[in-house]
Amino acid sequence: MNLTELLQRIPTLETSGAMNRKVSGIVFDSRKAVENSLYVALKGTLADGHSFIDSAVEKGAKVIICEFLPENFNPEITYIKVKDSSKTLGQLASNYYGNPSEQLTLVGITGTNGKTSVSTLLFDVFTALGFKCALISTVEYRIAGEVIPSTHTTPDVVTLNQILAKAVYEGCEYAFMEVSSHGIHQNRTEGLHFKVGGFTNITHDHLDYHKTFEEYLKTKKRFFDELPAEAFAITNVDDKNGKIMLQNTRAKKVSYAMKTMADFHGRILEVDFNGMLLNFNGKEFWTTLTGKFNAYNLLLVFAVAVELGFNEEEVLQVISTLKRVHGRFETIKSPSGIYFVVDYAHTPDALENVLDSINEIRTKNERLITVFGCGGDRDHAKRPEMGKIATRKSTLAIITSDNPRNENPADIIKDIEQGVEAQNYSKYTSIPDRKDAIKMAIKFAEPRDIIVVAGKGHENYQEINGEKYHFDDREVIEELLKIMGK
């Protein structure tokens, strides 16, 4: 693409060198620079991309985007000074790929819990309605029928635009994506044109990155602050911070709730392990999804589809055919009648939602056994909170490893144990090896008992000391059931 075309709608402070250049690609990692590429120097948390300008030039970059110009100019290179390289990267990527988000109905879902479920369910609903769609989620990226494994909740902005451009090329009309707080903070959604922003909830998470809850809240809110006037901002007003998301948005404000008055109102009429009978806006329907958190997820899906112009009855008819999202309240029943629930719940609120949903279903004659841990190198503050919730709401809690990463699993377990209340000391044990912990739960369980294996959900690996080892909770459960004959 021609450089002047690439810089359309992008404010620049100063330029040096030829502007009539052809740009072969955009990179922000100097190691990936190629002949005639454009290199964007980003100020990172660990390193400053300005230090690698010479390296990018050596590899063939001919255009440099930077926040301060180098002391020694190379006369063969074009230097462009901008106020914020990170934001400029998003706008450049969007221009380079033909502004694909403007050619799609792009829906972004943010919040602490439920992003993957809502985005995936929306993809399934709109596909069932007869549209080609794209999905960008923690679990995978989908472009119509093609599935691509994902690497981040929100990919870098160049990859994002590549995916969206491919979606446009393949004839997609809708795209649904998770919008993480990391992605918002790092400007990975810069230059994207959202038609809908949806908010699930906000609870304690990612404080290893954002440092304070106020900072985390402000980052999530920024997504709604930046929505255009023609967009819809749909929020959960049962969440105490739901209305805060809409305070400064220019978008049309839409609410959904199950406890308070809202534009879209839902009620749970019946619930068991097989599903729920729900009432949305006065209309009853059955779904195989179960649990209060799933009722909220479906209510947001319903609100998005109706706000985009679809008939309520038609949307509910499709919702009633939806299957559960992989690794989200996924159930297994053993030959002897033990129920298993495999769920990604890795925050205090998500774990509490899963356990509350099960406690609403069970008759109290069945015992509830919870196997869980916390990830290493992540928010330490949530560990004792999860220990308190699991032991308070389970018959037995087995504390184990999740993804310890570079931490000692025993240290993580100690942090979790700090939250266990004195009256619940007899209700837990700790087994660092995750497979052994699941084995202990199965050994302890009797027919009709419920075992929750939480924290990993769709993940098929454990990350230990920088290496990923294959580990799938469902596979382990099924393998142990065969060996133990239960």
Automatic annotation (TrEMBL):
Could you say which residues bind ATP here? G111, T112, N113, G114, K115, T116, S117
Q: Does the keyword DNA-binding apply?
A: no
- Residues annotated as binding meso-2,6-diaminopimelate are R378, D402, N403, P404, R405, G455, E459
Q: Name one GO cellular component term.
A: cytoplasm
* Gene3D superfamilies named among the record's database cross-references: Mur ligase, C-terminal domain, Mur-like, catalytic domain, MurE/MurF, N-terminal domain
Task: Please state every residue range assigned to the domain named Mur ligase N-terminal catalytic.
Answer: 23-97
**What sequence ranges are listed for the domain Mur ligase C-terminal?**
327-457
Q: What is its EC number?
A: 6.3.2.13
Residues the entry annotates as binding UDP-N-acetyl-alpha-D-muramoyl-L-alanyl-D-glutamate: S30, T153, T154, S180, Q186, R188
Note one Pfam family from the annotation.
Mur_ligase_M
Q: Where's the Mur ligase central domain?
A: 109-305
Main localization of the protein described in the UniProt heading? cytoplasm
Cofactor(s) the protein needs: Mg(2+)
Presence of the UniProt keyword Plastid in the record: no
Biological process terms from the Gene Ontology for this record are: cell division; cell wall organization; peptidoglycan biosynthetic process; regulation of cell shape
Its keywords, alphabetically, are: ATP-binding, Cell cycle, Cell division, Cell shape, Cell wall biogenesis/degradation, Cytoplasm, Ligase, Magnesium, Nucleotide-binding, Peptidoglycan synthesis
Role this protein plays? Catalyzes the addition of meso-diaminopimelic acid to the nucleotide precursor UDP-N-acetylmuramoyl-L-alanyl-D-glutamate (UMAG) in the biosynthesis of bacterial cell-wall peptidoglycan.
Matching entries from HAMAP family are given as: MurE
Q: What is this protein called?
A: UDP-N-acetylmuramoyl-L-alanyl-D-glutamate--2,6-diaminopimelate ligase
Upper classification of the organism: Bacteria, Pseudomonadati, Bacteroidota, Flavobacteriia, Flavobacteriales
